[in-house]
From TrEMBL, chain A:
It comes from Sulfitobacter sp. TCYB15. The keyword Transmembrane applies. InterPro entries: BPD_transp_1_N (IPR045621), MetI-like (IPR000515), MetI-like_sf (IPR035906). It is a multi-pass membrane protein. Belongs to the binding-protein-dependent transport system permease family. It comes from the Bacteria. GO terms for biological process: transmembrane transport. The lineage of its organism: Bacteria, Pseudomonadati, Pseudomonadota, Alphaproteobacteria, Rhodobacterales. Residues 95-292 form the ABC transmembrane type-1 domain. The keyword Transport applies. This is ABC transporter permease. The chain crosses the membrane at residues 12-30, 99-122, 134-155, 167-188, 227-253, 273-299.
Automatic annotation (TrEMBL), chain B:
It holds the Pfam family OppC_N. SUPFAM superfamilies: MetI-like. InterPro entries: BP-dependent_transpt_permease, MetI-like, MetI-like_sf, OppC_N. This is Peptide/nickel transport system permease protein. The keyword Transmembrane helix applies. It comes from Sulfitobacter litoralis. The chain crosses the membrane at residues 24-45, 94-120, 132-149, 211-236, 256-278. Signal peptide: none annotated. It is a multi-pass membrane protein. It is found in: Cell membrane. Residues 90-279 form the ABC transmembrane type-1 domain. Belongs to the binding-protein-dependent transport system permease family. Keywords: Cell membrane, Membrane, Peptide transport, Protein transport, Transmembrane, Transmembrane helix, Transport.
């Protein structure tokens, strides 16, 4: 186990190194000149040249990358070109909001997914089953911006049940979490359903029923915990999917997280921020995958670790 | 219909029979057929041009018209008929969806099978590269790529392909690796069969079901990704209609004119759903051991 | 709805060599009550509050409330008035300005402001290490070139004569100098605060303004608190202002209708406009104001066929400006020339190129393009600009010009415009010129002058007219207050010369619409302040204070 984790950690570091290189190279290729944005429209050519030299942007690519990497290893993500603030400060200020949103999404997708899956499994073959499975298909097929906009319109604007975007209270968290979590709930409900069906067929369930235990008890204490294992193992993978989704969801709901930060930075070619957010996201994805793989091993040694 | 023609050559007749029995799959195929029909015959289905900004298309105050007698689904903020744009938008979604997915499939197959079959150092490098690509937040990468290259239909398709081949590669790698260990492969080698022959005659045919399943499911993902990129303003160039960029252009009016978000939104969901339903059914039919797994 | 087109009375301010001593009491509103807090919303985050760097929509007015400069403007107008300088003298040749500072002005940390602070601030903003986008405005001060190239760290032209007196010498006469002293970039900052905060100074504030920065939660909100010791007595009225960022304009307006927000900083979104105007109670609280803004299409004179003036004139005649203003819901006035109507120097009565597609086609045919031609139209990819570009594209297609749209990120469009051979046409929306200060020269230099027609420059039409440039320089050296009218006439001639060559298609001048909540008071023009864009926080108040 330990050897496995160590090997994966080393691999993860190398992967992050690769991510940083590719991202840096891509941003270097951007046809837009960040110095122009910083210097503003009334700047003279000397000012522009000065700024370029100060930021080290007149150096060849390799030197720029080496400098960035050197700083990175010391924990310095650089300073935003346009705000002059440290990137780590900006990300640290906004990361909690994004993490909260992801947590909310995980809770939503688990509640929705598990409930739908269990009910569908218990009512297997009936209209309820078909409806629930259709709903989960739709959940997987709906783009998050459509879901988000529709939820805003129906529940916030028309019905006034929730605030219209923004951040602060639990009420603000509900709609964005559901929007982000619907995709996952679609996957989970189907997984839960088939997992539940498999478990319910097992001998130990029949034994429990034969012993006279009530249906509910069998369900809750024997079937459910076993059926849920494969899903718990998958939660880590969700992080990767969320990292893309938060750009859109935070934009639609005005949620002050790193997704919004990244989107604004891309518009303005604020390269240090884009690098910082990409690295943080990649980090999260790598950790998420690692956790998922470890959880899989524990949950069911029979399940192949991918 | 293209799909029906393709199936007998690729799938044994019994599979096709089993597929037809599943109602959801039929429903999905019908939706796909409907979309293709709408995309192909769009010019005949509506009297309007997709890019024609009509004076009558806006109210006196310059607001879009609601769905009604003259414009079946209403008009957008520039006075263009929404139904027409949605029909032509189907072309964008289908072309990019299939094209991007096709390229992703080719890349994924090439990398996955090569790594799985040859193994060794190369296999390791290729798989680590795949892990690397997986670590990238896909949407962020797509946005950056789209910003670097001036977007056009082809560029958008290539960008989507670039972020989408990873899953296919991983799955095919696992299958190829497992297949390559089997005895009959070793037997073929001792008989003197070259690698190319083994790959094409023995390995790939076994992979066909997986490729078909992922190919179909993948179109759903690419359709959604294209819509998202267009929604963010980095998709196909205006005035080419795409369901995502219709929502992008008109979203500030979603309160006053919700049909501008609703109808294209339904279109996106429908197409993605259709491919998901068909792909899922194919998976059940072709390889029951995969049932229910993500 | 009240319509106010701010007219310029720049004349009055510049005409007087000396201004009467502090009139800090005369502009107080008798109806104003002291106290209360208001909430203002913005969509984009505030990048920085450093006056040397801040150049955004959001932070421009915030900085105006946190800091002061030597010169200021009458609230809600474009008239100059003294700021931290109580009075000033201008030498005969117009090159030496002697500013006498007010006594007893305190920074937010309690220290008294002196002439040393003024010098420090000006040296800082022109120093390349600060990376100020506004450094170029101070180019007429003696010693600027030395500082800008790094040879010196102090401006030789800025001298501290005594604690209350600063003497600034210019290397050439500059009629816009007093306006430059009223820019945010010329604000006075406290040296010790800058040195203490280092590169993070932009996340703090230490000025002499009406408000101090009380709190800043990045990405969410900022809170400004009243400066009890503000040197303009009686101001500000409000106890505090809360800025909430990350709010979409639609959400902001809905919250305003709910009573949660007092001023939507990004204005009334188009989608809600009709609804609001249809309700008399709400319509009464909507304020419209002119902006010193022009939206235009640049035609690259270095790329065929736009090197042919007849082609450019034809394109001018092909654009249906009325229809395009309809795309933004009529919240603009069609433009005939580069300057907006409220800018001094605007040529009244000039009709420009009328909308006439037939004549345009004829002109094109004469120029040898009876079959039209293909070209590209660059545009920024945030709404509503792609829509406007599509409307332009349709207009062009009616005279046979097939324009493909290139909808790209803002920085990419700017980069393309800065190359001589990449962007034949650019729609300036989202990057369009809003004047930095209310003077005609501000619309010329970087975007129409020869100096701007360089690689990486902002003159995207690459237009270079040496005669017009010469006239512009001459106009700006007319510092004699008696020659104001002549100066404005000369600027008018410059722009008329530009229109003859038609390197641009001026399309519209955007009007600004905003709405205030029921409890807000203060003259309407404060809510569409042309200088303290968009709202002048120092002078507004609320009516529901106990």
């Amino acid at each position: 186990m330990l050897a496995f984790i160590t090997k994966r950690l080393i691999q993860s570091c190398l992967i992050l190194l690769g991510v940083s290189f590719i991202t840096f190279a891509l941003l270097y290729l951007f046809p837009a000149d960040p110095v122009r944005q910083i210097a503003g429209r009334s700047a003279t050519p000397e000012t522009v040249a000065n700024i370029r030299a100060q930021l080290g942007l007149d150096q060849p690519f390799i030197i720029q990358y080496a400098r960035y990497l050197g700083n990175l290893l010391q924990g310095d993500l650089g300073r935003s070109y346009l705000q002059k603030t440290e990137v780590s400060t900006l990300i640290a200020a906004r990361l909690p909001a994004s993490l909260l949103l992801m947590l909310g999404a995980i809770v939503c997708e688990l509640i929705l997914g598990i409930t739908m899956g269990v009910v569908a499994a218990l009512r297997r073959g009936t209209a309820t089953d078909n409806t629930l499975m259709m709903a989960s298909f739709i959940g997987v097929s709906a783009p998050q911006f459509v879901v988000g906009l529709l939820m805003l319109y129906v529940f916030a604007v028309q019905l006034h049940w929730f605030p219209i975007g923004g951040y602060g209270t639990f009420a603000h968290l509900v709609l964005p979490s559901i929007t982000l979590g619907i995709l996952g709930s679609g996957w989970y409900s189907r997984m839960m359903r088939s997992s539940m069906i498999d478990v319910l067929r097992q001998d130990f369930i029949r034994t429990a029923r034969a012993k006279g235990l009530s249906r509910i008890r069998v369900l809750m204490r024997h079937a459910l915990p076993n059926a849920v294992l494969p899903i718990i193992a998958m939660i880590g993978i969700d992080v990767g999917i969320f990292m893309g989704g938060i750009v859109v969801v935070e934009s639609v709901f005005g949620w002050p997280g790193i997704g919004q930060l990244a989107w604004q930075a891309i518009q303005r070619v604020d390269i240090p921020i884009i690098m910082g957010v990409t690295l943080v996201s990649a980090c999260a994805i790598v950790i998420g995958n690692l956790v998922a793989d470890i959880a899989s091993l524990f949950a069911d040694p029979r399940i192949k670790v991918r | 219909m293209a799909f029906a023609e393709a199936t007998p050559a690729l799938l044994p007749p019994t599979v096709w029979q089993r597929l037809k029995k599943r109602k959801l799959a039929l429903f999905g195929m019908a939706l796909i057929a409907l979309t293709i029909f709408g995309a192909l015959f769009a010019p005949y289905l509506t009297p309007y041009e997709p890019n024609d900004q009509m004076f009558d298309g806006l109210t006196m105050q310059g607001a879009p018209m609601a769905p009604g007698a003259q414009f079946a689904l209403g008009t957008d903020l520039l006075g263009r008929d929404l139904l027409t744009r949605i029909l032509y938008g189907a072309r964008t979604s289908l072309i990019i969806g299939v094209l991007a997915n096709g390229v992703a499939l080719i890349i994924g197959t090439f990398i996955g099978v090569t790594a799985g079959y040859f193994g060794g150092i190369w296999g390791n490098i290729l798989m680590r590269f795949t892990d690397l690509m997986m670590a990238f937040p896909a949407l962020l990468l797509a946005i950056c790529l789209a910003a670097i290259f001036q977007p056009s239909l082809w560029i958008v398709a290539m960008v989507i392909a670039t972020v989408n081949w990873v899953q296919t590669a991983r799955v095919l790698y696992a299958e190829t690796a497992s297949l390559s260990q089997r005895e009959f492969i070793a037997a073929e080698r001792t008989l003197g069969a070259g690698n190319v022959r083994i790959l094409f005659k023995h390995i790939l045919p076994h992979l066909t079901p997986t490729i078909i399943v992922w190919g179909t499911l993948g179109i759903s993902t690419t359709v959604l990704l294209e819509a998202t990129l267009s929604f963010l303003g980095v998709g196909v160039q205006p005035p080419t209609p795409s369901w995502g960029n219709i929502i992008f252009e008109n979203q500030t009016y979603f309160q006053a004119a919700p049909w501008l978000v609703f109808f294209p939104g339904v279109a996106i969901v429908t197409l993605a759903l259709a491919f998901n339903l068909v792909g899922d059914a194919l998976r059940d039919v072709l390889d029951p051991t995969q049932r229910g797994r993500a | 709805m009240k319509k106010l087109l701010t007219t310029s009375a720049l004349v009055a301010a510049i005409a007087l060599p000396q201004i009467a001593a502090a009139d800090a009491h005369s502009d107080l509103d008798p109806n104003a009550k002291s106290g209360g807090n208001i909430t203002v919303t913005y969509k984009d985050d505030v990048a920085t509050l450093d006056p040397a760097i801040g150049y955004d929509w959001q932070n421009w007015s915030m900085i105006k409330s946190l800091y002061d400069g030597l010169m200021d403007y009458e609230p809600g107008t474009t008239e100059l008035r003294p700021g931290l300088a109580e009075s000033y003298d201008i030498s005969e040749d117009g090159k030496v300005f002697t500013f006498k500072l007010r006594e007893g002005v305190k920074f937010h940390n309690g220290r008294v402001m002196t002439a040393d602070d003024v010098k420090y601030s000006l040296d800082r903003v022109t120093n390349p290490a600060t990376q100020s986008p506004g450094a170029g405005f101070f180019g007429s001060i003696e010693g600027y070139d030395a500082v800008s190239s790094g040879e010196a760290t102090e401006l030789s032209g800025v001298k501290v004569l005594d604690e209350q007196t600063v003497e600034i010498t210019l290397s050439r006469p500059d009629a816009t100098f007093l306006h430059v002293m009223g820019l945010n970039f010329a604000s006075v900052v406290a040296k010790e605060a800058v040195e203490a905060a280092g590169a993070d100074f932009g996340k703090t504030a230490m000025g002499t303004g009406a408000f101090k920065l009380a709190d800043w939660t990045i990405g969410q909100k900022l809170v400004f608190e009243k400066n009890q010791d503000y040197w303009r007595e009686g101001l500000p009225y409000l106890d505090s202002v809360t800025f909430e960022v990350g709010q979409e304009p639609i959400v902001a307006l809905l919250r305003l209708q709910n009573g949660e927000v007092d001023v939507p900083g990004d204005g009334i979104p188009p989608a809600k406009f009709q609804e609001v105007m249809g309700d008399p109670e709400q319509a009464a609280r909507v304020i419209e104001g002119g902006q010193l803004h022009t939206g235009y299409i640049t035609l690259n004179v270095k790329m065929a066929p736009f090197d042919n003036v007849d082609v450019r004139k034809a394109v001018n005649m092909a654009i249906n400006k009325e229809r395009i203003t309809q795309v933004i819901n009529g919240r603009a006035v069609p433009a005939t020339q580069p300057l907006p109507p409220s800018m001094p120097g605007y040529t009244e009565g000039y009709e420009g190129y009328p909308y006439d597609p037939e004549a345009a086609k004829a002109l094109l045919a004469e120029a040898g393009f009876s079959d039209g031609f293909e070209t590209e139209l660059f545009v920024m990819n945030t709404d509503p600009n792609p829509r406007i570009a599509q409307a332009i594209q349709q207009d062009l297609s009616k005279i046979g010009v097939k324009a493909t749209i290139q909808s790209l990120a803002q920085a990419s469009v700017i980069a393309a415009g800065g190359e001589a051979d990449q962007a034949p046409m650019i729609w300036s929306g989202g990057m369009a010129w809003i004047a930095d200060f209310p003077d005609a020269s501000n619309f010329y230099g970087p975007i129409l002058g020869c100096d701007g027609a360089v690689q990486g420059g902002w003159n995207w039409s690459w237009y270079c007219n040496a005669d017009a440039d010469a006239m512009a320089v001459k106009a700006d050296s007319m510092t004699d207050p008696a020659m104001v009218d002549e100066r404005l006439k000369m600027w008018s001639d410059v722009y008329m010369a530009v229109m003859e060559d038609a390197p641009w298609v001026p399309v519209f001048n955007e009007q600004r619409y905003t709405m205030k909540s029921e409890r807000m008071g203060g003259d309407d023009k404060l809510y569409v302040d042309p200088v303290s864009i968009p709202v002048n926080y120092d002078y507004v108040y609320v009516n529901d204070v106990q």
